[in-house]
Each structure stands twice: as structure tokens, then as C-alpha cells.
Amino acid sequence: MDSHKQPFNKPPSGIDEHISLLKSRGLQFLDEVSACDSLKFIGYYKLRGYFIPFQVHGDAEHAFLQGTTFEKILEHYTFDSELRLLTLKALEQIESALKAVLSDVMCLKFGSTWYIEEKFFSYSDRFAHLDYLISVREDLQTHKKTQFLTHYYNKYNEPEFPPSWMIFQILSFGASSKLFKNLKTDYQKGTAQPFGFDHVLLASWFESLTVTRNICAHHSRLYNLTFSRSPKIADEHKHFVIKSGKFYAQAIIIFALLKKINPSNTWNLELKQLLRTHSTIPLDWLGFPDNWETEKFWG
Question: Could you tell me the residue range of the domain that residue 124 belongs to?
Fold first, then answer.
């Protein structure tokens, strides 16, 4: 047993105790009844991550900055929730586009089960393709009762693996992104062509966006976050991306892809409206430059 560790024996606390604790740390409540409801249905631990920017840095007692209200913190939580939903809506389109393009480009040239053939992929680990096939089998087993898979296996006795346009219905965004990343260069270039971006750039973008998608899908904090995987930035975007590890870089690549996938999309306008609605949110926390709306890129 690690001598530096100790058993967890912290008792649970009720809402009244949480409010008393927050008050003792200097947090103000404009409407304590409403705050009780928020804590009841959001949870104290969920909101804790939103306290940090409003607390005195380095203070062992976690004191709040003077004048901080619970309602101000709650607005940041609400903004973050709405930003996640807006981002997730865009990522759904991008995920669908990646799967459709990757499947169509490859199966039209190499047949419907191209994705099981190792010759199309480049791996650093010689067992990687075997591991990949094992994961595909596991996905098929998990989704075996899906209507289209049930129909396939009831009607056909071979091949074991269904056509790629079926398999991409059950593969995750992350698995599809890895599949694209592991394609040999010539096949990557062919798949990247419909998107109009360099294949190396796209591999970085899809890999980064799968992390963003997981953050959104699991209701984790999106704003005021430094992403663990920063995307490569295209040359035409570099002059207005200050911090590639912040959300603004994600927004750039999301909208760049959406403009190719769905030229009539209004994601940029929805993002602008969201930021106007929550005008007290510091844009630099998200990596946005002061003049971002004036950039021609955003329309």
C-alpha cells in the first residue's frame, strides 16, 4: 500500500451545508431559494469546476473573488451547456460527412469490404490491424440486433463483415477518425479531396474533434478549457488563431468543415448569437481574439 495515500472518509453533504460552505468562502447569493433548486438538479460537484475562475488563485481555503455571485457562476454553466449543444450539432454533421465520404470513396474503388484489408493501411504496430478487426467484431456483436444488421445476417451467409456503408453506421467518430488517419497516404488524399483540405490537416482535425465530441457528449466543461489535443491550423487561419489549445481553434475548424459540407449552414450566426446573449462571458477564456467577428472567414 502507498504510504502517502489514505482512505477516503469524507462524509456527504446536503445542499444547506454546501450553501453555508460557499458563503463562508465569500460567495454571494442573490436568490438562495433558486440556488437551492440549481444545486439540487445540477449538483454541487458538477458546478465546482465553474467556481475555479472566480476563486483566489493559490488560496488554500478556496476563497471567492470579492463580489462573486452564485448567479454569475450559474450563467457560465448555462452558457457552457448551450455551447456544447451547438458544438455537438455541428460535430454530428462532420462525423456523418467523414463516414459517408470515407466509405463511398474507398468502396467505389476497392469493393464494399475494403476496410478489413490490411493493404490499405499503414500501422506502426504490426498487430494494430488485428486489434482493429477485433474491435469491429465487438461493435458488430454490440449492435447485432440493429435492424439493418439483423437483415444482413439473416439474408447473407458471407462475407462475415457487412459492407462499409453499414459498418460506418455503428463505428464511432473516434474509430472512423483513426481509420482515416491509418490509411496509406494515397488513399488519404483521395478521401480528403471532397473536403478540399490537405489530408494531413484533416487527419489532425478529425482526431482533435473526436476529443471535442466526447467532451460535449459527456457534458464536460468546454469553455475555459485547454484542450489536450490541439489541431493543426491551416495557413489561411493562422493569423487569427492566438491559442490553438482553446475552443476558438476548434470553432475555426468546425466552421471551415461545415462550409464545405453544408454551404448554407448558419452555425457561425448561431455562435455569434450565443456569445451576444451571454455577453458577460470573457471571450479570451475561449481563445477568441477581440476582433473575431470582423474576420471575413466568419461571414
Answer: 79-298
